[in-house]
Design brief:
Blueprint lengths: L1 E7 L2 E6 L11 E9 L2 H8 L15 E8 L11 E4 L9 H4 L25 E4 L2 H4 E3 L6 H4 L5 H11 L8 E5 L3 H10 L6 E6 L2 H10 L3 E4 L4 H8 L5 E6 L4 H10 E9 L11 H4 L5 E3 L8 H9 L9 E6 L3 H9 L1 H4 L3 E5 L11
Parallel strand pairs: 8-9, 8-11, 9-10, 11-12, 12-13, 14-15
Antiparallel strand pairs: 1-2, 3-4, 3-6, 3-15, 4-5, 5-7
Helix pairs in contact: 5-6
């Protein structure tokens, strides 16, 4: 089969690799019908995730069709259309029993495209299939469903829930990429009073306004002053970091009010300063986290009910074999206007013209 292979810092290739096979009785082999790229994939290619070794097939988000299952799999069978979660769960270890699936100690957690071969391929082996894939209702488009593999549960769990968004809160989202936009959409489920988004790219600020941000400001045009003006100098109740660079994290800490929450979502490749000499007396709660995906079934139900709009997040569609072109477009998002890039096998999923 063909797959997108990491070949070292700055290098990938769409090339032939061996087909995946059942290794453990809980595995499923899934034919990839729709797949998407993640900012974390860009971090890997840049060398920010050193545990990803050359030769690894990248990707941790997909919708596909089960083609084979191990003897212990009970919840899905060949022919089922499923969402492949970005996090795998053994279901037995102490973290999994607390629904902290991202911290699985039984061989799961974030393994796809990280510690084992991932989803940016024609086929993928999914471990612990009973808990790591979700049947997709027939009325849900594959390109909508694939957004629930990672960005929506990540934004909701690591941003909205960790940030403890409450009705009436002032919420600031720093970074209006896919995760930040999903944070805006899922924060709205909790009825905040005001949502402010900031980003470097005007195209992403336009998307933020379209998806529900009440105010937007370019990163270089005084977001901290705007937040101060909107809150009578107090600061925001919740600030979410959705970029993953020191400057954005440090800006989040400056914008939060005493007693507020800073929810870090971004993947950081470099140290960021934590000014405890300023924070120690402010009762600020700072959270970090890897998504656990316990919210995925609920989010799927909201999509089916029409309560969680996903249209508009996928800005570019490609055929599966155009993986390297898709990476180029996604990696130059400020120039291309890309928000979320999705790819599909034209034999199984309708794919529009590239770009």
């Amino acid at each position: 089969m063909k797959a997108l292979v990491f070949e070292g810092t700055g290098r990938t290739a769409w090339r032939e690799v061996p087909d995946p096979a059942i290794v453990d009785a809980g595995d499923a082999i899934v034919r990839v019908d729709a797949v998407t790229l993640c900012g974390t994939d860009l971090h890997i290619v840049k060398g920010d995730v050193p545990e990803v070794e050359p030769g690894r097939v990248l990707g941790h988000e997909a919708v596909g069709t089960v083609v084979e299952t191990g003897g212990d799999v009970r919840t899905v069978r060949p022919g089922d259309r499923v969402l492949v979660s970005c996090v795998s769960s053994c279901g037995r270890c102490a973290p999994c029993r607390e629904r902290r699936y991202g911290q699985c100690r039984g061989g799961g957690g974030w393994v796809l495209g990280h510690l084992i071969d991932g989803t940016q391929a024609e086929y993928v082996r999914v471990p612990f299939a009973d808990l790591s894939v979700h049947p997709v209702p027939s009325g849900v488009d594959s390109f909508d469903a694939v957004l629930l593999a990672d960005i929506f549960p990540t934004a909701y769990e690591v941003g909205v829930l960790n940030g403890a968004v409450r009705p009436g809160d002032t919420v600031v989202v720093v970074g209006a990429g896919p995760i930040g936009l999903a944070a805006i959409l899922t924060a709205r489920l909790h009825s905040p009073g005001l949502i402010v988004a900031t980003d470097l790219a005007e195209s992403r600020l336009q998307a933020a306004r379209r998806l529900g941000a009440d105010a937007t400001v370019a990163a270089g045009e005084g977001p901290e002053q705007l937040v101060a003006d909107l809150t009578d100098g107090l600061g925001a109740d919740v600030v979410m970091e959705a970029v993953g660079v020191p400057e954005s994290f440090e800006a989040c800490v400056r914008m939060v009010r005493p007693g507020g929450h800073v929810a870090n979502i971004g993947v950081h490749g470099k140290p960021a300063a934590l000014h405890l000499e300023e924070l120690w007396s402010k009762d600020v709660t700072l959270t970090t986290g890897l998504v656990d995906t316990f919210s995925t079934p609920m989010l799927l139900r909201l999509v089916v009910a029409g309560r969680l709009p996903t249209a508009g997040l996928v800005t570019h569609r490609f055929a599966l074999g155009q993986m390297e072109e898709a990476y180029d477009v996604f990696g130059r998002a400020a120039e291309t206007g890309a928000i979320k890039v999705a790819l599909g096998d034209p034999r199984h999923t309708a794919v529009q013209a590239a770009g």
